[in-house]
C-alpha cells in the first residue's frame, strides 16, 4: 500500500509579503487530504493577509479534496484571512466547474487573478 506522502507532496511559500501559497503536487483525496489541511492550518498560524492554494500540480481532486478546500476557505475567513485558489489541470478545472465551486473558492488562472478576486469579496 502506498503511503500518503508517496501520492502527494505539499510545498508552502511566501512569494509576496503577507501571501502564503500552499502548493500540493499529486492526488488530493481521502488518503492525502490531511496533508493539505495541515499545511493550510500551519499557514493560518502565521496570520498572513491571504492564503492561496496553487492547484497546478494536482493530478486528481476527489470529493474529500473539495471538502478540504472549502474547509480551508471557511477557516481562513473565520480568521480574517483572504483565501483563493488558482491554476489546475483540465481534470481539476472541470471538477470546479461541474460542482460550481470555482467562484466560491475564488479560483483564478494564476496567482494575480486569485489575489484580485480577494478584492471583489
Describe, in short, the structure shown.
By secondary structure, this protein is of the alpha/beta class. 46% of the residues lie in helices and 29% in strands.
Walkthrough of the structure:
This is Anti-sigma factor antagonist. Residues 9-118 form the STAS domain. This protein has 121 residues and is α/β, with parallel strands linked by helices. The protein has one domain: Transcription Regulator spoIIAA, CATH 3.30.750.24. Helix content is 46%, strand content 29%. The protein is built from six helices and six strands, in the order αββαββαβααβα. It has helices at residues 4-7, 33-45, 63-78, 90-99, 101-104, 111-119, and strands spanning 8-16, 19-28, 50-54, 58-61, 82-86, 107-108. Strands 1, 2, 3, 4, 5 and 6 form a six-stranded mixed beta sheet that branches. α2 (33-45) runs parallel beside α3. It is globular, with a radius of gyration of 13 Å. The termini are far apart. 37% of the residues are buried.
